Amino acid sequence: MKKILQKFFRGYAVLEEVYSPINGKIQVLEDIFGKRRLVVGGLTQSGEAVEKVWRKTISNFQFPISNCLIMGLGAGSAAKVINKFFPEVKITGIEIDPEIIRLGKKYFGLAEIKNLEIKIADATLTINHKQSLLLRNQSLIINHHDLILVDLYLGNQVPASAETDKFLQTVKKILVPDGIVIFNRLYYSKKVTEVDNFEKKLRKIFPKIEAKKIETNKLFLCRTIKMK
Predict the structure, then answer these.
(1) 14, 6 Cβ separation under 8 angstroms
(2) Matching Pfam families, A to Z (predicted)?
(3) Do 70 and 151 form a contact (C-beta atoms < 8 A)?
(4) Which of 23, 54, 72, 153 lies 20 to 30 Å from 220 when distance is taken between CA atoms?
């Protein structure tokens, strides 16, 4: 009854609210139409609005994709879109916060996404570690990906480790020559200058970049080679 009254007066009900030592306050909200969204640090990080951003970005891709790496899996919005348009693609999703994975499975169908392998880890440390092992010539198979999605936020902030030259260069190295890496950034008010500076850094590393403004997001589609 409480949730029904919340929907009537607020337009949404709080299905669950938790505090994470990694992300702070996390809420699962459900509106009067039964649509759910994951709110972290006051910002929607999973749900229909987030899926819409990814649909507009990747639905028209025409190049072959066999595997995809998602850094910042969240509750699975991007993985759902990949699975819908490219059902045979093998997806590896890395998420630092186990609480978000738990909520994703409980409220957003994360466990039902086909061909998805979930890893609870810090994505920046994970790929930097792989690269360091490769440089030391240790026997580790380094996966190279056709598509990489980088959607790394802690609350409403991008961790500094996800903007270093080392991280960006490592992402470039684990991308196949004709693949695409997409960086998703919030792009409004005080974040505009921050993202513009990030774009300048990307353009020093990737020879081909297409920027797309979708809703309050700006996405950078980066390639390691210039397409003819």
Answers:
(1) yes
(2) Spermine_synth
(3) yes
(4) 23
Dump pLDDT digits (tens) for 18-67.
999 999 999 999 999 999 999 998 889 999 999 999 999 998 898 889 99
* 70 DSSP β-pair partners: 93, 149
Query: Which helix (H) or strand (E) is 182 found in, with range?
Result: strand 175-186
Kindly state whether residue 197 falls inside one of the protein's structural domains: yes
Model pTM score: 0.89
- The rounded Cα 136 to chain-centroid distance in angstroms is 29
Strands (E), 8-144: 12-20, 24-31, 36-40, 43-47, 67-71, 90-95, 116-120
Strands 12-20 and 24-31, bridge-based pairing: antiparallel
What is the domain range of residue 167? 43-223
Residue ranges of alpha helices (H) inside 28-95 are 48-58, 77-85
